[in-house]
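F.,

This is the one I mentioned.
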């Protein structure tokens, strides 16, 4: 196991570093404290060949210039808030609009675009990084000073574990996630339509044309949203189904099956038959956004290959989009004295 650190560049007059974490099985993860971005994640296929299975760039400048959230920590609110506004304890808050009328992934300068404090950590069975950021009261329109800690761990069971923690000094809303784009064949190797996916959800949250949930929890049964048994991503992605047309593919929040709120359960799996790579996702969160890279448009990635339409997918564990305006959805409110606490694990193996 080892952790190395090297300079990655400067943003907002602050130095950003690149941390190289390696576990005892030689899985290697590179992370920068700019946006908490997972720059690369190298895992074996069934023959032991190592490939980098997340999309990203080699240069810090490329992330600063144009990053569709590759690998980043998303906050203060993952996914969309309709009309970029909400009311909390009788007070109306107006947020930055960065996607039409909506607030997406925290606004113009979300947690993906700030420099975090970073401290490497190592224990008997893991290497990791503790990232800290203080989001000021009023930042992007959100109330309260939010003290955020995100711990990335790469352990010797080949799990990438993320612990999210936050506290506030004023009632606020919070919904953190990680936006890694996966391609289990290897980044830049083409589309992900052959990956076989399972999502442990009986229901999903249908959206309107601006991708804001309608409020309904619709059954997946009998629709192309049904991933309760292993199904290729491409099997039904172009079906004549309104929700898929709106999203240009999958771009939907699934309501994860849970017996108990906040329990750590299996959210999803993805299997790539050619390489044999298998990824399992466990989370304490009630939802997961399944996004199939429908807005990737040919940007050149870290190995010089283009990232085109549907060349990666994301499993973003989260609370449901637009929850601040949907009182019937699980609450995203955080009050002074409380602790926001969620965990997500991505586990890698082969079959
Ligand atoms: C959203 C997509 C968006 C993507 C990149 C996903 O979480 O649901 O609509 O295009 O992130 O911003």
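My design for it:
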């Amino acid at each position: 196991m080892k952790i190395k650190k090297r300079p990655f560049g400067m943003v907002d007059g602050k130095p950003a570093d690149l941390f190289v974490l390696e576990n005892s099985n030689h899985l290697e993860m590179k992370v920068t404290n700019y946006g908490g971005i997972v720059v690369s994640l190298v895992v074996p296929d069934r023959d032991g060949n190592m490939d980098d299975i997340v999309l990203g760039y080699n240069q810090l400048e490329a992330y600063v210039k144009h990053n569709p959230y590759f690998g980043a920590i998303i906050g203060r609110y993952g996914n969309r808030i309709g009309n970029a506004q909400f009311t909390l304890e009788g007070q109306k808050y107006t947020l930055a609009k960065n996607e039409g009328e909506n607030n997406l992934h925290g606004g113009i300068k979300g947690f993906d675009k700030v420099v975090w404090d970073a401290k490497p950590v190592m224990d008997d069975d893991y290497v990791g990084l503790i990232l800290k950021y203080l989001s000021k009261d009023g930042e992007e329109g959100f109330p309260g000073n939010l003290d955020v800690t995100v711990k990335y761990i790469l352990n010797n069971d080949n799990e990438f574990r993320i612990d999210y923690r936050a506290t506030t000094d004023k009632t606020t809303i919070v919904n953190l996630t990680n936006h890694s784009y996966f391609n289990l064949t290897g980044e830049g190797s083409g589309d992900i339509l052959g990956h076989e996916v399972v999502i442990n959800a009986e229901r999903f949250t249908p959206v309107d044309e601006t991708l804001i949930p309608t409020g309904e929890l619709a059954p997946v049964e009998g629709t192309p949203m049904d991933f309760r048994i292993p199904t290729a991503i491409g099997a039904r992605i172009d079906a004549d189904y309104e929700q898929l047309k709106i999203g240009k593919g999958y771009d939907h929040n699934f309501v994860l099956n849970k017996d108990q709120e906040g329990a750590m359960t299996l959210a999803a799996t993805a299997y790539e038959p050619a390489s044999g790579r298998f990824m399992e996702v466990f989370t304490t969160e009630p939802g997961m956004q399944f996004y199939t890279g429908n807005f990737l448009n040919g940007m050149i990635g870290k190995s010089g290959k283009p990232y085109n339409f549907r060349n990666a997918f994301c499993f973003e564990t989260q609370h449901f989009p637009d929850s601040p305006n949907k009182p019937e959805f699980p609450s995203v409110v955080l009050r002074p004295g409380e602790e926001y606490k969620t965990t997500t694990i991505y586990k890698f193996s082969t079959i």
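The first strand starts at residue 2 and ends at 11.

Talk soon.
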